[in-house]
Design goal:
Organism: Solanum pinnatisectum
Number of domains: 2
Distance between the termini: 53 Å
CATH architecture of the largest domain: 3-Layer(aba) Sandwich
Number of strands: 13
Largest sheet: 6 strands, mixed
InterPro entries: CAP10, O-Glucosyltr/Glycosyltrsf_90
Strand content: 5-15%
Protein name: Glycosyl transferase CAP10 domain-containing protein
CATH class of the largest domain: Alpha Beta
Shape: globular
Pfam families: Glyco_transf_90
Length: about 375
């Protein structure tokens, strides 16, 4: 089953006696594989000798690969256990924290531990009530149809949908030293829009950490933490099929219900600062890999083409921003604390109840939107 995932894997990771070995199959996009492996090494430094022997395949791309429908047919093979950064209800990929937690060197996004502190300070500098009373989004719209569609919601002479949308030219930013892309300086609006890119987007955590109300355009994909977010508690759900009117209503609602809106922004920020701190990211990785290792029915051995990895071997030859981010995110030594206790899994009834609660909140917003537009028929597009 493990080897069946090789054709879709960028690398194979084997851990034997607490040491990590990697066999690379193909080059991943930018430095995704480098920082993913770096993150795993930091987890091993944090919990030396505690991670069991294991053997896994990892895909560093955006698209989900292990589609459920192919493995539900009669006589279908068992699905390969393939690790990656996001999942969907139609796939069976195993979701793992993405590379950006340790830094995204190519676009100068700092490791999460550093950046989350900077975002917290930025929030304290500019109170919610003093921020621009509009919805803000900045990014590359050309990677997805849903983003291109959202460009129609930008302010124009004919219409103001309460959205302020900016295209990000990463090539220009790179040439100019990323002066206009500091995420900590982008918490100046009361509302921030999250919209998926090619699949999920790593921008979600930076948007949620802003203290602004996150207007979350209905996503298709999830990462390892996002299913813990609840509509009307951590974010405001936006209708993917009617984005502009949905965004306008959300902003008008928030500006007339400022106390409730601020509570949503604050709850999301607290979730990111408390539940998504690096201590828990490492604990999630530890438990995920430990539970996975229990399923192996063979003793992992080092592949003949694999090389051993250690933090020093990776960091010493690194240069520039990559080296800087590695130094910034390096775990100094073993943790005094043991990994947090893994919670009991939800029962099917609990999962159903959770999904029903989510759906009710989304339907509630849709009902408010309908009432709002019935009252404002003359303003409809």
């Amino acid at each position: 089953m493990v080897m069946a995932g090789k054709s879709n894997a960028d690398f194979r990771l084997v851990i034997v006696d607490g040491r990590a070995y990697v066999e690379t199959y193909r080059e991943s996009f930018q430095s995704r594989d480098t920082f993913t492996l770096w993150g795993i090494l930091q987890m091993l430094r944090r919990y030396p000798g505690k991670v069991p022997d294991l053997d896994l395949m990892f895909n560093c791309g955006d698209n989900t690969v292990t589609e459920t429908k192919f493995y539900r047919r009669p006589n279908a093979p068992a699905p390969p256990p393939l690790f990656r950064y996001c999942g969907s209800d139609a796939s069976l990929d195993i979701v793992f924290p993405d590379w950006s937690f340790w830094g995204w060197a190519e676009i100068n996004i700092k490791p999460w531990e550093t950046l989350s502190k900077e975002l917290k300070k930025a929030n304290e500098k500019l109170k919610w009530s003093k921020r621009e009373p509009y919805a803000y989004w900045k990014g590359n719209p050309y990677v997805a149809r849903t983003r291109m569609d959202m460009l129609k919601c930008n302010v124009s002479e004919k219409q103001d949908w309460n959205a302020r949308i900016y295209k990000q030219d990463w090539i220009k930013e790179q040439k100019e030293g990323f002066k206009q892309s500091n995420l900590a300086s982008q918490c100046k609006h009361r509302y921030k829009i999250y919209v998926e890119g090619h699949t999920w987007s790593v921008s979600e955590k930076y948007i949620l950490a802003c203290d602004s109300v996150t207007l979350l355009i209905k996503p298709y994909y999830y990462d390892f933490y996002s299913r813990g977010l609840m509509p009307l508690i951590h974010y405001w759900p936006v209708n993917n099929n009617d984005k502009c009117r949905s965004i306008k209503h959300a902003v008008d609602w928030g500006n007339t219900h400022q106390k409730e809106a601020q509570e949503i922004g604050k709850a999301a920020n607290n979730f990111l600062q408390e539940q998504l701190k690096m201590d828990y990211v490492y604990d999630y990785m530890f438990h995920l890999l430990s539970e996975y290792a229990k399923l192996l029915k063979y003793k992992p051995t080092v592949p003949k083409n694999a090389i051993e990895l250690c933090s020093e071997v990776m960091a010493c030859p690194a240069e520039g921003v990559i080296k800087k981010f590695m130094a910034e995110s390096m775990v100094k030594g073993p943790s005094d604390a043991i990994p947090c206790n893994i919670p009991h899994p939800l029962s099917p009834a609990d999962v159903h109840s959770l999904l029903v609660t989510k759906e009710k909140s989304i339907k509630q917003v849709e009902s408010w939107e309908k009432q709002y537009w019935n009252k404002n028929k003359t303003k409809q597009h």
